């Protein structure tokens, strides 16, 4: 039986203080820097702050003293066939998941293993996060054994608590921070679900069962360390001593600069600029000197927003009415823009909706598809010659939600089957939103390819997961709960705005076209959106829905 040791509070305080020192060092290092840029040295500082806090938890929970004070193989286990078999099974699961499956779903993007830097990072990361896992289990064990007494009921509760707590932590921590600020770009997104199903889940579930049943805390922590060491080598994690290598698969960027572009004399057209991300983008671009044209269906709100921006910046901010779900309205708006503005320097196709209610436009097309994709597609086509003549940057706002649309059902593109005859259906609403963003992404990439020889540049940007703006006003269930009660944990509009401004204005991306941008970095759109056959289908369907003929 495991002899659980008392916490080592002096060591816990010391490691917590070390973590604070790393945070202070990070703040000093990032002073006057653009914090959203991937910076290897900053990544190491962030990571080692996390590692120090993980060790602090390991000391405070008693996990480290317990591992040190107990043999890794407890008495009688070495002769147990069941224990040997389960230990071997867990080791195989870890090896296959993190040393075989994980590398298959990972791209190095020009990085290589640097000795000893990458190795040191992998060992420290593995042991530190392994200790965090062990600490969560030990805290759960202390709690449930103390509450209901040691036994089968407590074991089930310990195992369940460990799995749920670590799943939530790992999912949120990696999605919201680790994969944004610490890990370099490495995921093949279509492999993410396989990594979860074939590596993370089996490792966590079997590991929690193993440590609860046999209490081999040291072995479990060591296996987690081995798992993350494999992940580190697969990326591989870059060295803080060397500049982050240029991605050979990425676009050729101009010299790095943190200076804001001077947009004086530039004209920027923003759809959906009355509120939310569109209004924020319009305001920030006006602050850089641009004259703004807001296209929106909410006339009064758009005029109020325009007046506020003009008052604060002194720039010209006009409003043009457009209902993107109506082709006639889009054509009228395009005519108004073409008549008044001899050049357009940036077209930001930002407008979008999410709705759980089944609705169609006058042409019989489901409203989400019509608004999020067809309207922006038609507007861009109608303005295309002016955009080409102006050498404009054209941005389409998509979402990583497009990765959830694995195919387009052309026989039921409105998704009526998913609504099941109900006036409201959250699942169907999200499915249509995902499909609309796949259409946006595929069509934008095709447009970029078709206009590659012109001065116009087309890119797709994504604000990030679940930015709490008005687009989710119609959402119910978990989304509404997340936005209402966990807003501080979600991505802020200000952070999402980084990509908007960078791709629309920075001289670094001058001449870059046909790229998918997230967190100010070029990454890959879904494999479905990359499929040329899908792009051709989306293009033909979009032209038809927009009412554009080949000779138009």
Quick take:
56% of the residues lie in helices and 7% in strands.
What does it look like?
- The chain is of the alpha/beta class and 552 residues long.
- It folds into two domains: 9-234, no CATH class; 267-545, Rossmann fold.
- 56% of the residues lie in helices and 7% in strands.
- It has an eight-stranded mixed β-sheet with strand order 3-2-1-4-5-6-7-8, with helices on both faces.
- Helix 2 runs parallel beside helix 5 and helix 4 (81-104) packs antiparallel against helix 7.
- The protein starts with 8 loop residues before the first helix and ends in a 6-residue tail after the last helix.
- The relative contact order is 0.09.
Present the secondary structure layout.
Layout: H1 9-29, H2 40-61, H3 63-68, H4 81-104, H5 117-148, H6 152-182, H7 192-214, H8 217-234, E1 267-271, H9 276-287, E2 291-296, H10 299-313, E3 317-321, H11 327-340, E4 346-349, H12 367-390, E5 393-397, H13 416-419, H14 426-450, E6 457-462, H15 478-485, H16 493-505, E7 515-518, E8 521-523, H17 527-530, H18 532-546
Parallel strand pairs: 1-2, 1-4, 2-3, 4-5, 5-6, 6-7
Antiparallel strand pairs: 7-8
Structure characteristics:
18 helices, 552 residues, alpha/beta, 7% strand, Rossmann fold, 2 domains, 8-stranded mixed sheet
């Amino acid at each position: 039986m495991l002899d659980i040791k008392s916490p080592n509070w002096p060591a816990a305080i010391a490691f917590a203080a070390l973590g604070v020192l790393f945070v202070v060092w990070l703040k000093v290092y990032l002073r006057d820097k653009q914090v959203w840029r991937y910076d290897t040295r900053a990544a190491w500082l962030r990571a080692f702050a996390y590692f120090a806090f993980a060790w602090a938890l390991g000391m405070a929970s008693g996990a480290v003293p317990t591992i040190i004070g107990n043999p890794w193989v407890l008495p009688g286990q070495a002769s147990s066939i069941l224990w040997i078999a389960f230990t071997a099974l867990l080791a195989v699961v870890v090896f296959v998941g993190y040393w075989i499956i994980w590398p298959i779903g990972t791209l190095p993007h020009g990085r290589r293993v640097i000795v000893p830097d990458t190795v040191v990072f992998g060992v420290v990361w593995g042991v530190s996060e392994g200790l965090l896992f062990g600490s969560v289990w030990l805290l759960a064990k202390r709690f449930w054994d103390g509450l209901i007494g040691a036994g089968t009921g407590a074991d089930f509760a310990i195992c369940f608590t460990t799995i749920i707590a670590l799943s939530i932590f790992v999912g949120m921590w990696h999605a919201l921070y680790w994969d944004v600020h610490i890990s370099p770009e490495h995921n093949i997104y279509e492999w993410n679900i396989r990594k979860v199903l074939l590596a993370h889940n089996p490792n966590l579930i079997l590991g929690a069962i193993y440590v609860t049943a046999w209490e081999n805390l040291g072995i479990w922590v060591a296996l987690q360390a081995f798992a993350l060491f494999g992940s580190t080598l697969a990326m591989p994690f870059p060295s803080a001593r060397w500049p982050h290598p240029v991605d050979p698969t990425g676009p050729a960027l101009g010299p790095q600069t943190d200076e804001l572009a001077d947009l004086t004399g530039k004209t920027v057209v923003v759809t959906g600029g009355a509120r939310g991300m569109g209004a924020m983008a319009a305001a920030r671009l006006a602050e850089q000197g641009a004259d703004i044209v807001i296209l929106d269906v909410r006339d009064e709100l758009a005029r109020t927003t325009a007046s506020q921006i003009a008052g604060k910046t002194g720039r010209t901010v006009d409003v043009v009415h457009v209902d993107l779900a109506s082709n006639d309205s889009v054509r009228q708006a395009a005519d108004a823009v073409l008549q008044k503005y001899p050049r357009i320097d940036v077209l930001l196709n930002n407008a979008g909706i999410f709705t759980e209610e089944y609705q169609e436009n006058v042409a019989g097309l489901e409203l989400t598809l019509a608004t999020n994709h067809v309207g922006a597609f038609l507007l861009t086509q109608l303005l295309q010659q002016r955009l080409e003549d102006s050498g404009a940057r054209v941005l389409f706002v998509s979402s990583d939600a497009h990765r959830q649309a694995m195919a387009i059902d052309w026989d039921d593109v409105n998704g009526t089957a998913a609504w099941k005859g109900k006036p409201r259906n959250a699942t169907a609403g999200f499915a249509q939103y995902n499909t609309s963003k796949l259409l946006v992404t595929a069509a934008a990439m095709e447009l970029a390819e078709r206009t590659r020889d012109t001065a116009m540049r087309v890119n797709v940007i994504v604000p990030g997961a679940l930015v709490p703006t008005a687009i989710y006003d119609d959402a119910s269930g978990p989304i509404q709960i997340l936005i209402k009660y966990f807003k501080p944990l979600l991505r802020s509009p200000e952070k999402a705005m980084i990509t908007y401004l960078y791709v629309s204005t920075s001289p670094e991306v001058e001449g870059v076209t046909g790229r998918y941008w997230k967190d100010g970095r070029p990454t890959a759109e879904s494999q479905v959106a990359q499929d040329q056959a899908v792009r051709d289908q989306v293009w033909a369907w979009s032209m038809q829905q927009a009412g554009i003929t080949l000779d138009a």
